[in-house]
Amino acid sequence: KENPPTEDSQGRRRRSGVYHPFAWRGWKDFGTGALGDMACHAVNMPFRALKLGYPNAVECEETSELHQETYPKTSRIRFEFPAREGLPPLKFWWYDGDPNDPSVKPLRPHEDIAREIVALRGSLPASGCLLIGDKGKIFTPDDYGWQFYFMLAGDSGFTPSKTKVDDQEVEHEAIRHVPQTIPRLPSSNNDQMQKKEWLDAVRGGPPAYSNFDIAAYLSEIILLGCVAMRVGVGRRLEWDGPKMRAKDAPEAAQYVHREYRKGWEL
């Protein structure tokens, strides 16, 4: 059934019963797809832990069917990061897609990479993050990194970051002697406390842990995946972060900056 967009007197696009309350984020006119929706949560842990900054290359490796107005139902995007602050170069892959959508099989890591996760849980979680290093692996099975599992070199599988021994909570050996440097919210009600943290910052208190210098930087970096997707599958973009441009793809500029309507310029 046709449901073409219309415009109101202010030039704002509308499509009855489609954009709101949730689906607007999947439309290119308004949103940034799964990357803009969830990557700020799922990628926060590796972004901070691995001191990720601007990538030197981004490529959309594969997607489901592409459409002019909407983002694909599933995609796989590769980010390449240079050496930084004493850490070696690395590659980072983003996968998205709803495992409960019967119309598409979501792209996921190769079975060799996911084998231990499947052994731990029975299947891949709907969301999560896996870090693979020289000395082992770290896996978190949710959007926000609430839980962690470790698999050190030589281990046969993942074990939780904390276990109960004689009614005492014991930390995994990989983190037992790591000093705590990240501030903790002083309550189990994290949702309420993060809002209080933000209000305290607005009122002149300490900056929030995800202050704009962190949140905006992460958003700028991860949304390069959307730029790569729109430039084209299989097109590797050589990225110049400080200048916000793809050195080898001038056509990417249209997805980095936009022309705003008169009166709405930034």
Characterization of the model:
The chain is globular, with a radius of gyration of 21 Å. A hairpin with a 3-residue loop joins strand 6 (129-132) and strand 7. With 266 residues, it is an alpha+beta fold. The protein has a single domain, classed as Dihydrodipicolinate Reductase, domain 2 (2-Layer Sandwich). The chain has helices at residues 33-42, 44-49, 111-121, 190-202, 212-222, 224-231; strands spanning 6-7, 13-14, 57-63, 75-81, 90-96, 129-132, 136-140, 149-152, 159-160, 162-165, 168-171, 237-240, 245-246. It contains six helices and 13 strands. Strands 5-4-3-12-13 form a five-stranded antiparallel beta sheet, covered by helices on one side. A four-stranded antiparallel beta sheet has the order 6-7-8-9, with no helix packed on it. A two-stranded antiparallel sheet has the order 1-2. Helix 1 packs across helix 5.
Number of separate helices? 6
Report how far apart the termini are. Answer: 37 Å
* Strand numbers in spatial order across the main sheet: 5-4-3-12-13
Shape verdict: globular
Q: Tell me, what is the CATH class? A: Alpha Beta
Helix and strand run: EEHHEEEHEEEEEEHHHEE
Q: What is the average per-residue confidence, as pLDDT, rounded to a whole number?
A: 91
Oligomer: single chain
Overall number of structural domains: 1
Strands, count: 13
User: Which stretches are low in confidence, meaning pLDDT under 50 for 5 or more residues running?
Assistant: none
What helical percentage do the residues reach?
A: 10-25%
**β-sheet strand percentage:** 15-25%
Q: What is the fold named in CATH at topology level?
A: Dihydrodipicolinate Reductase, domain 2
